[in-house]
Amino acid sequence: QLQLVESGGGLVQPGGSLSLSCVASGSTLDSYAVGWFRQAPGKEREGVSLVSFSGGSTFCASSVKGRFTISRDNAKKTVYLQIHSLKPEDTAIYYCAARRFFGTCRERDYDYWGQGTQVTVSS
User: Fold this and answer.
1) What percent of the chain is predicted at pLDDT more than 90?
2) Is the N or C terminus of the chain more exposed, i.e. has fewer CB atoms within 10 Å?
3) Cα–Cα dist 31/18, whole Å
4) To which H or E segment does residue 110 belong?
C-alpha cells in the first residue's frame, strides 16, 4: 500500500519561497503519477500541478504558472513542489496524491493521499 507524507510547509512572508516534499513508502513511486493539491480556508481542494512517471508535468491552476515547479526523484521516492513569489492567496494546506495514470486534476481520480502540510503566507 502506497503511503505519502508531505513536509516543508511553514509561515513565509509574501514574495518568499518554499520547497515542499512528498515522500512515498510502502511501494515504489515510479509507477505512479503524482499531483499536488491545495485547500484554502473555506474553499474546496483544487489541483495545483501534476507530474508523470517520467517527469513530464502540467499545471492545474493558472494562478501558479511561472511561480510553482513540480519535479520528482524516483530513486528517492520523492516529488517536490518549489514555490516562489508566494502570495497571501497561496495560503492553504498542500497535499500530494498519487494514481496510476497521468493527466487529471480531479481529486476524486486519485487513490492515495498524504495528510497535508500547511503553507501560510503572511507579513
Assistant:
1) 85
2) N
3) 27
4) none
DSSP 20-85: EEEEEESS-STTSEEEEEEE-TTS--EEEEEE-TTS-EEES-GGGTTTEEEEEEGGGTEEEEEE-S
Separation between Cα atoms, residue 13 and residue 76, nearest integer Å = 30
Distance of alpha carbon 20 from alpha carbon 69, whole angstroms: 10
**Residues 30-42: tens digit of each pLDDT:** 889 999 999 999 9
Q: Which three cell numbers stand for residue 95?
A: 497535499
- Cα 29 to Cα 88: distance, rounded to the nearest angstrom: 32
C-alpha cell at 37: 493539491
- Extract the C-alpha cell encoding 20: 515542499
Report the chain's C-alpha Rg in angstroms: 13
Rounded to whole angstroms, the Cα distance separating 68 from 12 reads: 15
